[in-house]
Amino acid sequence: MRTDDVVIVGAGVIGLVSALFLAESGLAVRVLERGQIGQEASWAGGGILSPLHPWRYLPEVRRLAAAGMAAYPELARSLLEHTGIDPEWQASGLLILESTDHPFPTDPVGFGAGEGQTWHLWDGVTAAAQFPDFRLRHGQRALWCPEVAQVRNPRLLKALHRRCQQLGVRFFPGTEVRAFVRDDAGKLRTIVTDQGEISSTRAIVTAGAWSRQLLVDAGLEFPIKPMRGQMLLLQGEPGALPSLLLHGPHYLVQRRDGLLLVGSSTEDVGFDKSSTVAIREELLAFIHEFFPPARDYPVLRQWAGLRPGSPENRPFIGAVFDGSGLYIASGHFRYGLTMAPATASILREQILGEPTRAPAVMPS
User: Fold this and answer.
1) What's the CATH code, domain 6-77+153-224+311-352?
2) How far apart are CA 188 and CA 77, in angstroms?
3) Looking at residue 1, what is its pLDDT?
4) How far apart, in whole angstroms, are the C-alpha atoms of residue 20 and residue 17?
5) pLDDT tens digit string along 308-353?
6) What is the separation, in whole angstroms, between the first and last Cα of the chain?
7) What is the top-level taxon of the source organism (predicted)?
8) Which pLDDT score, from 0 to 100, does residue 363 have?
9) Distance of CA 3 to CAs 78, 174, 195, 304, 344, Å?
């Protein structure tokens, strides 16, 4: 019987990329998922590969995001080559509209340069001339961020799943982890699931909003909690949206086939994944104001996902303590997709005992 080198708990984007990187390094990997593969927060978001309003985040969070963003072109190319599934990575650019509750920093262009980005600050007249299909408020400034890209996250997740299977990763959906059993020295010994026990000395918890409860039961406390985000899907005309658009907490993303995603809310409601009429109306008001052609687009669907929130949006990445064999990668809030390649690199390097090249983030 094959022995697993690593067991990953949670098959969202971070669990899948971690499984991919570890399998590419020659390790035998098993993935346990309480639901279906790639169907929680990683699937539910808009696929923007960048922190929204980056100046609101800590430098170490921005560094991790930048490392993840830089890895995506090659990751997407490789997945398409090996699986035939195109994750649709594309540099769409992001137009950020200033608002009273999300003001720009004093020198946004200089801030962007410090992050290695070429940003352009425009007054309303210039922005309207550059993007006539967007409707700005009177006197509203705009920040153009041409390097920002997107990926079609459902397709990315399918490609990751297929590539992992090609590399021999074993998946067990519908398997809920009940406990991590450790020996007297604190080292992982057994994983208890609703399908039975698994002997393992190394496991990674990548269970998103569910990570905290899994580790609390093992006597470990990580302040991670679910934060609901609601989305709308509209059927638009292909190529109608000239770029990604962000205003306050809301954004627009268009896929190549014309589908328009409108996001999103941030709600502290526990594990409630229901969607509401109030948020639907809020998101429709946003898109109708700033992109008037959408008034004629039918709404196809509304849904919600649960992001793993953490203090100051700083994810927890790495061994829960030295020698435990138990690792965590969670608490990325809105940016698990953006940070996934860099997060998986940190985990791979720690597990293989290699020097860590990716930026460290995990709070003490």
Assistant:
1) 3.50.50.60
2) 36
3) 40
4) 5
5) 999 999 999 999 888 889 999 999 999 999 999 999 999 999 999 8
6) 38
7) Bacteria
8) 43
9) 28, 21, 17, 37, 22
Residue 188 has which token pair?
């992982």
What is the biggest distance separating any 2 CA atoms in the chain, rounded to whole angstroms?
68
Any idea which residue has 């962000």 for tokens?
Answer: 246
- Cβ(93)–Cβ(146) under 8 Å? yes
The tokens for 86 are 């195109």
Could you report the per-residue pLDDT of 94-146, keeping only the tens digit for each? Answer: 999 999 999 999 999 999 999 999 999 999 999 999 999 999 999 999 999 99
Distance CA 190, CA 68 (A): 32
| Res. 185 pLDDT band, cuts 50 70 90 | confident
Q: Where are the domains of the chain?
A: 6-77+153-224+311-352, 93-147+225-308
Cα distance between residue 60 and residue 54, in whole Å: 11
CA-to-CA distance for 342 and 51, rounded, in angstroms? Answer: 14
